[in-house]
Amino acid sequence: MSYRVSAKELKAIRKIEGEVLSFRSINNCRVILEIDSSSKVVDLTTEDPWVVRIGDKIVVAGLNDNYSGKFFGFGYINQTKKVKDFGESALPSIFGYIPTIIGVVFLLIVVLSIWLSLELVFTLICLGVGLTLIALGRRIVLKKKIRERIISLLIT
After folding, report:
1. Reduced to 3 states, what is the DSSP secondary structure of residue 36?
2. Which class is 10-85 in CATH?
3. Are 39 and 81 in contact (CB under 8 A)?
4. What's the whole-model pTM score?
5. 153: number of CA atoms within 13 Å, CB side?
6. How many other CB atoms are found less than 10 A from the CB of residue 41?
7. 3-state secondary structure of 2
8. What does residue 28 show for φ and ψ, rounded to 5 degrees?
9. Where are the transmembrane segments (predicted)?
10. Measuring CA to CA, which of 92, 111, 126, 139 is 20 to 30 A from 67?
11. Tell me: the pLDDT tens digits for 117-141?
C-alpha cells in the first residue's frame, strides 16, 4: 500500500533519524523498518531498490498515519552506506503548469460554445479534456513540491 499525500499534508512531512533495529522486505522497492529512535514502524517505499541493513544509520522523511500507527516514508538517506533516494523523480514544474493552462483554455472554449450555442458533444468533450488536464497539472506540481520538501528535510 502506498500513501497519497494531499496538499494539506505537505507541511506535515517530517523526518525520523536513527539506527535500523530490524527490517522486512516487502519487495525490492518497499521495506518495513524498525528504527531505534521511533516507536512507530516505518513503511518505506523507494524509487530505486532500497539499501538497508541492521545497524545502519538512516534518515527517513515521511508522514505519520494515525489510523495504522505507521510512519510512511517517501525518501531516505542511509548515512552508513552513503545511499540516497528522494522518492519519485521530479519533473520540472513547467510540465505541471502547461496542462493546467491548456485545461483552462479548454474550459474557456466550453464557455464560448455554450454562449454561441455550439454542439453539446463538442462542449462536453472540451469540458472533460479541460478538467482532466487541470487535474493532471495540479498532480504534477504537487509531486514536485512533495519531493522538494523531502529533500529539504533529509539534507538539513
Report:
1. coil
2. mainly beta
3. no
4. 0.64
5. 27
6. 15
7. coil
8. -75, -10
9. 94-115, 121-141
10. 139
11. 777 777 788 888 888 888 888 777 7
At 46, list the grid cell.
523507494
Contact residues for 98 (Cβ-Cβ < 8 A; gap 6+): 137
C-alpha cell at 144: 514536485
Classify residue 110 by its DSSP letter. Answer: H
Write out the three cell numbers for 87.
522518492
Place of cell 454561441: 116
Three cell numbers written together for 20: 535500523
* Cβ atoms 151, 83 nearer than 8 A: no
114 pLDDT exceeds 80?
Answer: no
pLDDT for 93 equals: 54
DSSP state at residue 124: H
Q: Please report the beta strands in the chain, taking only residues with DSSP state E, as ranges in sequence order.
A: 14-27, 30-35, 41-45, 57-65, 70-78, 83-85
